[in-house]
Amino acid sequence: MPVRRLMKLLVAVLAAALVLSGCSGGSAPSVVVGEAKRGGGVTVAEVNAFSSFNPYSAGGNTDINSKISAVTHSGFFFLDDSSKVVRNDKFGHYEKVSDQPLKVKYTVNEGVKWSDGAPIGAADLLLAWAAGSGYFDDVDPAAGTGTKYFSVASDTGGLGGTVFPELGGDGRSITLEYSAPYADWEVAFDVGMPAHVVAAKSGLNDEEDLVKLLKDTPRGNPEKPVTRPDLKKISDFWNTGFDAKTIPDDPALYLSSGPYIVRDIVPEVSMKLVRNRDYVWGQEPWLDEINVRFTGGVQAAVDAIRNGQADIISPQPSAANDDLLTALSAQGITVERYRQSGYDHLDLNFSGPFKDKDVREAFLKAIPRQEIVDAVVGSQVPDAKPLDSHVFLPGQPKYDETVRNNGSSDYAKVDVEAARKLLKGATPTIRVLYNRDNPNRAKAFSLLRDSAAKAGFQVVDAGQASADWAASQTRGGYDAVISGWIGTAAGVSRIPQIFRTGAGSNFTGFSDPDADKIMERLATTTDLGKQDELLADIDKRVWEAAYGLPLYQTPGTTAFSPRVAGVKTSPGPLGVWWNVWDWRLAQPAG
Questions:
Q1: Averaged pLDDT, 501-508
Q2: Which of 317, 201, 195 is nearest to 257 (CA)?
Q3: Where are the beta strands (DSSP E) in 83-194?
Q4: Amino acid 16: pLDDT
Q5: Could you say which DSSP state residue 337 is in?
Q6: Which pLDDT value is given to residue 34?
Q7: Contact (CB, 8 A) for 384 and 549
Q8: What is the rounded distance in angstroms from the CA atom of residue 410 to the CA atom of residue 365?
Q9: 151: Cβ–Cβ under 8 A, 6 or more apart, which residues?
Q10: Is 77:86 a contact under the CB 8 Å cutoff?
Q11: DSSP run (H or E) holding 271
């Protein structure tokens, strides 16, 4: 998600048509490099439809957008399949220059550039900081005053947002200063969107004007909010200017700094990526071309890999179609099973009918979580049970103890009678947002709708199409949402990103001043045991507020044909894409 280093993404599960231009059979020719072949291409079937070149924004923060961003952008580090930080010294370097106060300096190497030839430097770093720090915001969520400028998906509570950065004289470096020790400093910051493009699209002459504007704009003060139209133009473009379901007419809107460049998009159908021939500031990829087809359901993905129209698939399995994936092994296709570091959940907005805590509790007591788990997860996980924590996953050391004490037992079973008593004869209308093209989410919706109706709720289907539903979370017009998060084990910023008052991915309006204070302590705590204690405290407060319900940890499946080698799945947000540079065509036997 950060994904920036959010380390947690919205799992927007979208569907699409099944036509693909440029499948693997039409890939570029290979050339021999030593005993292996460099070149050629593969096709990957993905669940979701692409919707934005800016995955750092709240509206663009979906799994597929982040995967495409990961292979078309480069930075100071990446996370491997065990969530270990791997520094990319070919791109640049970062170092802690002071502990008190905490200062971290980032320097981009000479020669690193965007695909239009513009160098990556201090302006790009400053824009990334401005977007991620919340420095200019003067919004007061409780009072409903002020402005939140950059609609960033990550939490803005820790990225050195109290002191304006120091720009290096080399034009390629920036030094961030934190007001307090920050546990996630090593994964807190990286390059985002191109500053020279944002400047031009915002009506400025060049990125130097952008830097000057940011320098001249005072830090936001919620007690004295001020309208800043020039800054608003910049943030508005950053927020939505890179959104696109098809290839933009202006190439500046999809520049690359990574191993691949987007060449073509058929909306909600397919995408073509080609190798960035100028890319030398990271691991060199083997393949010349990667084709992505947006398949939606499991059946379409399985058909694609069986028919040779896809080489790699990572569908979202369910109890109803798991046998389709199991059967692939008999055809010489490698099938890997794992538990993702993510979960599906139901969240309630703290407004409208759910402004009343009794109504929230009533709705949650009517949700058939075990029935949803049985229908979606089924036998994929032995003795599958509902997830009973908002912050821990089963198997993590603190999970069982936390579950015993967090209050989740109040919603262990459906209790229609208790829900009716809480409603006191009322029949609230509840609009539920979800991705209607995702079979698992659609099944969860139908089960909760029917069960909630028994308690007196009138549940309205507010589902959206695959490429639209995730952005709908930022626009409102719903009372509850069925969604998903997926993260990594790197850092704890994923928690305030969701639950802190006014945070970028806090779509529900949840606000608990005491929980905010705990999250502030969490951000400065490096001891893992103490982090777990703070996380357990946050979890209990979220349950006490009747925030919503975690449903189940999401099972993951990846399958790849013998035609491709180098595929290694991560349970985190990027899945198989984390090491795309290792993908290559397998050598024929003999």
A1: 84
A2: 195
A3: 85-87, 92-99, 102-108, 166-167, 173-177
A4: 25
A5: E
A6: 41
A7: no
A8: 8
A9: 57, 58, 59, 235, 239, 474, 504
A10: yes
A11: strand 270-275
Q: Are 65 and 572 in contact (CB under 8 A)?
A: no
Tokens 């790699």, residue located: 312
Closest CA relative to residue 343, chosen from 389, 399, 297 = 389
* Cβ contact 565:585 at 8 Å: yes
Exposed/middle/buried for 588, CB within 10 Å: 0-12, 13-18, 19+?
exposed
Q: How far is CA 193 from CA 4, 56, 123, 214, in A?
A: 11, 9, 10, 15
d(C-alpha 352, C-alpha 432), whole Å: 13
Q: What is the pLDDT of residue 433?
A: 95
pLDDT band, residue 160 (cuts 50/70/90)? low
| CA angle (119 as vertex; 113, 122 as ends), nearest 5 | 120
Judged against a pLDDT cut of 50, whether residue 420 lies above it is answered with: yes
Token pair listed for 288:
């010349």
DSSP 422-461: HHTT---EEEEE-BTT-HHHHHHHHHHHHHHHHHT-EEEE
324, two tokens: 């389709």
pLDDT of 549 higher than 70: yes
- The residue type found at 341 is S
CA angle 442-50-268, nearest 5°?
Answer: 70
Model pLDDT, residue 371: 96
Whole-angstrom Cα distance, residue 128 to residue 154? 12
> What's the whole-model pTM score?
0.83
Distances (CA, A) of 270 to 19, 44, 294, 383: 7, 10, 6, 37
Angstrom distances, CA of residue 296 to CA of 304, 354, 536: 12, 32, 36
Task: Tell me the pLDDT band of 492, cut-offs 50, 70 and 90.
Answer: confident
Give residue 518's identity as a one-letter amino acid code.
I
Give exposure, 498-522, as e/b (b: 16+ Cβ within 10 Å).
bbbbbbbbbbbbbbbeebbebbbeb
Secondary structure (3-state) at 233: helix
Cβ contact 46:292 at 8 Å? yes
Which ranges of 116-228 would DSSP assign to H, the alpha helix? 122-133, 195-201, 207-216
DSSP state for residue 251 in the 8-state scheme: G
Residues 220-245 have pLDDT tens digits of: 999 999 989 999 999 999 999 999 99
